[in-house]
Structures are given as structure tokens and as C-alpha cells.
Amino acid sequence: MHFSSAARHALLLVVFLLCLPASATTMLRVDLPELSRTADAVIHGTVRRVESRWSGDGRRILTDVEIQVTESLKGEPGSTVLVTQPGGRVGDIGQRVSGLASFTPGEEVVVFLEKRGPQAFRVSGMAQGKYQVQRSADGSQALAVPASTEEVLLLDPSSRQATSSSRKTVSLEELKAAIRAALEQPAGTGAEEKSR
User: Is the pLDDT of residue 194 over 60?
Assistant: First the structure.
């Protein structure tokens, strides 16, 4: 079997494209100072309820996450917040959206929130806007672990080239201090502006 040069190139291109990792979601990488400044609210709290339901038009599944607020680091969200995200499972039917933060009842979290209505929020930056708090057995140490962004293709906001997350695990107190420091900076004076 003989292939023309153009056919060989087309076949090689198809094979190359099939070998690339698939990402269902592409988003700009957001650093902690920007997340802190652009969020309407930043809270530390405990997930009380995670419940999926059909949207009002019956075409999509939505998941409501109720979080009891332990501490508000920005904004005045009240004693509990309701975070609504697309996707979830109702009965035998599930819808999944790559790149969203996932929540479990009882989980301790720090989340960056965008207001979506009088009492409704969504997570800023999708999974980039969630840290899970993991405590040592004796409760003396608490780490803030960023939610995974492995399922998404992150792009550098300046170059628009593929990049990796700049978030890392830190102590809960270090995370809170970094958020407070970012909120004290006037807009446009963060590291991203200084590097331009």
C-alpha cells in the first residue's frame, strides 16, 4: 500500500493529535492575589450539605453546596453561604463539568466566591478558588491544600501558553496571611503588574 506524501503527513498529524492529552476545560491561571482581590467573598468554613437537583427548566443538573462560615476573610456573606455549580448526579443520571471544585459534607475549606444572586455564590476560578483544610491528628497543625487542576489546561494570562498551577500547599495561617496581604494592596500593584 502506497500513500502519497500529503496522505502520510495527514496520517501523522492525526496520530499526533490523538496522542495529545485531552482537556475538557481550558482556563487562565489565576494567582492567589488576583483571586483574593476579584472575589466578592473569601471564607473559611465547613461544608454542611451537598445536594444535586434538576435546574428549573429540567435540562441541566446543578449541585448546591451549603457552607457554614467559620471566618469571613473578605465580604459579609453571612453565617452560611450557598454555592451552586453545574453538574452532579440525580438518581441514575449524572452530568460532569471538568475543572470545577468538588465538595464533601464535613470538609473544611477556604473558598473564593463570586456573588450570583442575593444569597447565591459560585467558586471563583473554578477549582483554583478552593483549598481543602487538612488537620493533623491532634489538631495542632492545619494545612491548606489547593484543589486539583489536573483535568484542565491552564494558560498563562500574559503569554496564553500552557502552564501549570502556581498554587501550593501551605499552612492555613500562611494562606490567610497571604489573602489579607493581597487585600491590603491597591489594585494593579500586584506581582503580575510589576513583571510587565
Answer: no
